[in-house]
Amino acid sequence: MLSIGACTVFEPQRTFYIELKPINFNSTVEAASIHKLSLERLMKEGVSPKDALTQFEEWITNEAAPNQQPLFVAFNAGFDWMFVNYYFFHFLGRNPFGHTAIDIKAFYMGMAGVSWSQTSWRFIGPKYMPEYHLTHHALQDALDQADIFKKMLEELSNNRKFQGENQK
Questions:
Q1: Which of 62, 91, 114, 131 is the most exposed place for a label (fewest CB within 10 A)?
Q2: So what's the pLDDT on residue 131?
Q3: Contact at 8 Å (CB) between 18 and 52?
Q4: Cα 137 to the chain's mean position, in Å?
Q5: Which domains does the chain have, with CATH numbers?
Q6: Taking Cα atoms as reference points, which of 164, 131, 127 lies closest to residue 149?
Q7: pLDDT attached to residue 158
């Protein structure tokens, strides 16, 4: 993991971004072409993973509602979660999210009643962000995913209100 980007879902939207020192140089050309981060630059300028995760944990704790467990939300949470969870446990011995995660793709699958194959960005992107193209920048991805999730929640809420009005 070379960078962490996070944001709150609801207003006022707050953000967190940090770049980490690599723990090794195991990278592929394909991965580097996606994240576009220089491992050499991050070795000099990146924050140690332990310090980065400590800062991230502090941000999460400060942004979470009092007496509420923070909730990890991501588009393909299974992928992002494995890195975040590993780094938290490896460097801090704990994960402030506990075991709470919502996968936006799975949420959409249940909400829209579609098959898993219809939850890819190819289907969801045009519906919720028609002018958007993935940047693969951790903070921008977090902001975009939060926007999509808010739109899904609004759509679900509007559908429930509509159903409730029709049942009267």
A1: 131
A2: 80
A3: yes
A4: 11
A5: 3-166 (3.30.420.10)
A6: 127
A7: 87
Q: Which residue has the tokens 């800062």?
A: 55
Which positions of the chain have pLDDT values less than 70?
161-168
How many other C-beta atoms can be found within 10 angstroms of the C-beta atom of residue 96?
19
Closest CA to 91 of 52, 60, 64: 52
Catalytic one of 35, 99, 136, 137: 136
Q: Is 136 considered catalytic here?
A: yes
| Contact indicator for 51, 78 with CB cutoff of 8 Å | no
